[in-house]
Amino acid sequence: xxxxxxxxxxxxxxxxxxxxxxxxxxxxxxxxxxxxxxxxxxxxxxxxxxxxxxxxxxxxxxxxxxxxxxxxxxxxxxxxxxxxxxxxxxxxxxxxxxxxxxxxxxxxxxxxxxxxxxxxxxxxxxxxxxxxxxxxxxxxxxxxxxxxxxxxxxxxxxxxxxxxxxxxxxxxxxxxxxxxxxxxxxxxxxxxxxxxxxxxxxxxxxxxxxxxxxxxxxxxxxxxxxxxxxxxxxxxxxxxxxxxxxxxxxxxxxxxxxxxxxxxxxxxxxxxxxxxxxxxxxxxxxxxxxxxxxxxxxxxxxxxxxxxxxxxxxxxxxxxxxxxxxxxxxxxxxxxxxxxxxxxxxxxxxxxxxxxxxxxxxxxxxxxxxxxxxxxxxxxxxxxxxxxxxxxxxxxxxxxxxxxxxxxxxxxxxxxxxxxxxxxxxxxxxxxxxxxxxxxxxxxxxxxxxxxxxxxxxxxxxxxxxxxxxxxxxxxxxxxxxxxxxxxxxxxxxxxxxxxxxxxxxxxxxxxxxxxxxxxxxxxxxxxxxxxxxxxxxxxxxxxxxxxxxxxxxxxxxxxxxxxxxxxxxxxxxxxxxxxxxxxxxxxxxxxxxxxxx
Length: 598
Known about the structure:
- This protein is an alpha+beta fold.
- Among the domains are: 251-361, Flavocytochrome C3, Chain A, domain 1 (Alpha-Beta Complex), CATH 3.90.700.10; 441-571, Fumarate reductase/succinate dehydrogenase flavoprotein-like, C-terminal domain (Methane Monooxygenase Hydroxylase, Chain G, domain 1, Up-down Bundle).
- Helices cover 33% and strands 21% of the residues.
- It is built from 15 helices and 22 strands.
- The strands form 6 sheets. Strands 1, 2, 7, 8, 9, 10, 18 and 19 form an 8-stranded mixed β-sheet that branches. Strands 12, 13, 14, 15 and 16 form a 5-stranded antiparallel β-sheet that branches.
- Helix 1 (22-34) packs parallel to helix 4, helix 5 (228-235) packs across helix 14 and helix 12 (459-473) runs antiparallel to helix 13 (480-498).
- It is globular.
């Protein structure tokens, strides 16, 4: 059957952007501003760019106003470094923080409706881990558009992309990256609606596909976040970095796992256990509910493990409460209307009069495709792949290290999108290569195997078993026994799905075929996460080992993982950039391997 497949057509463009969310379209907008007429194709897995996961971001994005007499960029850098558990690359931290306010101005100049105060100035709210004077006080640093900031960003960058003439390919997936003479020269796409494989020749390929949250059963992530670019990169022999660094948001709505934004705590929401005790003072005496997410998530899980949780009868899951009843009508109606609506819609609760059930939910992947500060994908610590870039959650320039502060993700995607655009403009001046002769061979072999298999296996059942197992064994708390259990199970599921038959054998709009491909991606990403977590015998940020509860200096390095054959992972280390500390400038001592207390 493999011989029956072919590339139905060839497409040429200047830039191929895979993923039409905030990072991808910010990249496109910058390129088009500087070089109008550039031929850009933006691929989206979903039915419309506005369905991208960026649209679900709620709380805001951090940026220090140059006119702020209290806040300073150096405080934001310090908070990000400390929040990362001393694993963020400091050159990247400085670059993004320094560019942050320019992006706020850029967004507002193009029509974003940031919320303003009664005096007409941009409103700002606080988020966990954001401080002034190196931890002495709380920082009001996040600008926002009510509690739907991501939607505002997407409206903006999508409009700019349309205005610049970007061509969108919806319901299309990336199946293979193409290389020639050591450079990325294009990709193979599968267009679901037509059931066709297409080869795209491009001067530059930008990966901006988002995260891989569907690895876990309880997640705030959209259905399409299955680690597709991560898996394709692994197949190409390139590494992933720090995949064991997974963030679990403290407040997922019990049941659907939907995000109950950190905004709820920034406006005064209080976490309570079954005895209605406000317990966060025990874990973070100074910052309490406004401590970083990893600390709050572990606090909630500890309360539940020690018998102070509440069993939800509808979902048979334990949780704690977030208390919003004391907040004013103004806060409910103006600052958190959408999140309040989630509790009403999914739990039939009124947050003004009822306690709301929450529990940690998988939220963000701090690791990903390793890049430098320009977004160029790295093959090794000292080698980049020319013509290949990554931005947003799928990329890892390591702005977040091992724990991301709230509001830093949208800041990263909007700034890194621009940085990638700047680099692509420089690279495009060089001559593009034609596609290699074997373009598509790997894809055809993979999809032929899917359609030829005859054993009856329920791929959806395997997917759900895998996600449940990952939540139980590779979740907020991890142990050697649990991680080994996860790895053995992943090997077993991979063997089962190798021969799983599909009920539908056609190519056109075959969702079962796409889900089979996604399952391979999820299994690959899960294996890298689990083995990376087993190898890192310490606790750091979002990676918490019960059997190794302390941070250890021998692990002061990034993890690079290469896996071309399933389960056979080659690990390498990459040093953490500590350039701010090493420069020995003012306040440099704040950027050493500092203790992390809140």
